[in-house]
Amino acid sequence: MVFGQVVIGPPGSGKTTYCNGMSQFLQLIGRKVAVINLDPANDALPYECTINIEDLIKLSDVMAEHSLGPNGGLVYCMDYLEKNIDWLESRLKPLLKDHYLLFDFPGQVELFFLHQNAKRVIMKLIKKLNLRLTAVHLVDAHLCSDPGKYVSALLLSLSTMLHLELPHVNVLSKIDLIESYGKLAFNLDFYTDVQDLSYLQHHLDQDPRSAKHRKLTKELCEVIEDYGLVNFTTLDIQDKESVGNLVKLIDKSNGYIFAGIDASAVEFSKIAVGPVDWDYYRVAAVQEKYMKDDEMFDNVESDDK
């Protein structure tokens, strides 16, 4: 079995940064990682890309040839990838023996709660290549500071979960920056656990734009609560402990931890003695050196001192 993550979320939620940091973290704990870029609009990749959809199709070419905008162009690219899924399968097969896969998808949210093409691509890969994938849905944590936007994020998360039908982890990304957007109306637990949403009503009524849609908002909140599926975990991509906690959660959801419990314990023991915070911008430069050293994090810690 091959394990991996389907990284999705709205534009600006930090998907590419996540793939960069997560791939380096996983390599530091001993996993061989392959990042697959399936976003044809992502032309500035900070990570080493094993497979790039631009080798198959380019968004700029699609927009020019078919007179499409970015959104229509991305839908076309996903349709084209689905029809040429053999291209992707042939490039993934050499990685199946010993790699952990990270799929970096486009930020167009319609692809994951409305259109079927991205879902069909994922399902075909799962079926043909025996993959065990978890959808990691990133939502910018700053949306918590605006009750209306937070409800929208909940609806998007719920719709995506129901549409994709995958093991699913919702993540409030950039949690380290949340205080810069102002004081939250409630404790962070309220937003991560998605507690009684009726408490948001008073704050929504303070905004004239939201007040006139009060009844609609109330009904939408009840839909979210009736399903009872949505909650969030938090992530600071530069904090080793935060990333490690998320990896453990993902490993439980896709079964990685059950496929190799002993191996998983060894992996995380490698970072247990390290510093609490890690700078993934620095990791790339020292990664090759310390991966060969059984005491790599002891050495990193002494270097930091």
From TrEMBL:
Top-level taxon in the UniProt lineage: Eukaryota
Keyword set, alphabetical order: GTP-binding, Hydrolase, Nucleotide-binding
Recorded GO cellular component terms are:
cytoplasm
Gene3D superfamilies in UniProt? P-loop containing nucleotide triphosphate hydrolases
Give one GO term, molecular function aspect.
Answer: GTPase activity
Tell me yes or no: is Thylakoid among this UniProt entry's keywords.
no
Q: Does the keyword Hydrolase apply?
A: yes
* SUPFAM superfamilies in alphabetical order: P-loop containing nucleoside triphosphate hydrolases (SSF52540)
What does this chain do?
Small GTPase required for proper localization of RNA polymerase II and III (RNAPII and RNAPIII). May act at an RNAP assembly step prior to nuclear import.
Write out the similarity annotation. Answer: Belongs to the GPN-loop GTPase family.
Question: Subunit composition?
Answer: Binds to RNA polymerase II (RNAPII).
Cross-referenced PANTHER family: GPN-LOOP GTPASE 2, XPA-BINDING PROTEIN 1-RELATED
Any idea what this protein is called?
GPN-loop GTPase 2
Organism whose genome encodes this protein: Sesamum indicum
Q: Which gene encodes it?
A: LOC105177781
